[in-house]
Amino acid sequence: MIVGVYFNIRFKSDYKKHLDNISTHLAAANIECRLIEGVNDIKGIDVLMVLGGDGTILSVASECAVYGVKIIGINYGHMGFLADFEPEQFEYALRLVSEGKYQTERRSMIEISFSDKVYYALNDLVIQRCTSGNGFSNTVNLRAEIDGSTVDNYSSDGLIVSTPTGSTAYSLAAGGSILTPDLEALIMTPICAHSLHSRPIVFSDKSVLRIFRIDGKSALNIIVDGKVVQTVNDFDFVTVRKSLRFVEFITSTKNNFFDKLLIKLNIWSK
Fold first, then answer.
1. Helix or strand or coil: residue 235?
2. How far is CA 54 from the centre of its chain?
3. Cβ proximity of 47 and 69 under 8 Å
């Protein structure tokens, strides 16, 4: 087995101490350890240990899906929904990997295509008005169709299309429902819609969603997993469907989605 280690940029100053600790622990189990400095280093490893937050994990998730690399996340970020282990569980996580006594959880992805471009997202696609520079745009008008049937025309700041994994991210902040990771569904959430009837829509992940531009040619940002991949002034439509790819996470045997939800969102129950 080959385990890669990928650090959030905040570790750049003292990552060697963490890397030496991980290498020593894994070497005792005859497991090779490699420092991963970017997505180009991922091919050829079996497990990627990510020390960082959700953004750090998202930056490598798509490439891990391509090569079938399992991810184990140690949360050194803010929210840490994607990381199943907290810093105080670091030694426990290492032991799970070295002993192979873990379970895995597959998370679905979406495939996003428009023009001649194809992208993959673990969390979400956001089509949003541009709010900076000469590309600043006002409210945009988009039409959504699911399997050829019109869902609604949205006058809003944009639309979010999210996987169950991403339903606890931007979609939730915009008023979308939380989907448990095992649901075979997607959710489309308008951003600041100028309508009383425009509400989030949960639909089967076997369906195909198309989003059309129905207003002028002001700039729009196409954002995939939090990264602006393009700023466009025009497009015919964007197609979103469930991807054949998936991301596989190493989890603890004590993993429970609702326990994590209570902790991460600071919802306290008696």
1. coil
2. 8
3. yes
Of residues 20, 41, 46, 54, which has the active-site annotation? 54
For residue 246, give the 3-state DSSP assignment: strand
pTM to 2 decimal places: 0.90
Q: How confident is the model at residue 151 (pLDDT cuts 50, 70, 90)?
A: very high
Output the six-digit token pair for 28.
Answer: 């005792």
Write down the domain spans for the chain: 2-102+252-264, 109-244
* 109-244 belongs to CATH 2.60.200.30: yes
DSSP secondary structure letters along 55-101: HHHHHHHHHHHHHT-EEEEEE-SSS-SS--B-GGGHHHHHHHHHHT-
pLDDT digits (tens, 9 = 90+) for 240-268: 999 999 999 999 877 778 777 877 777 54
> Is 147 noted as a catalytic residue in this protein?
no
Instruction: Decide if 2-102+252-264 and 109-244 have a common fold.
Output: no
CATH architecture of the region 2-102+252-264: 3-Layer(aba) Sandwich (3.40)
C-alpha distances out from residue 156 to 75, 88, 131, 142, 256, Å? 34, 42, 13, 8, 35
Name the one residue in this structure whose structure tokens are 């960082």.
52
Write the pLDDT tens digit of every residue in 54-72. 999 999 999 999 999 999 9
Tokens of 163: 């996987």
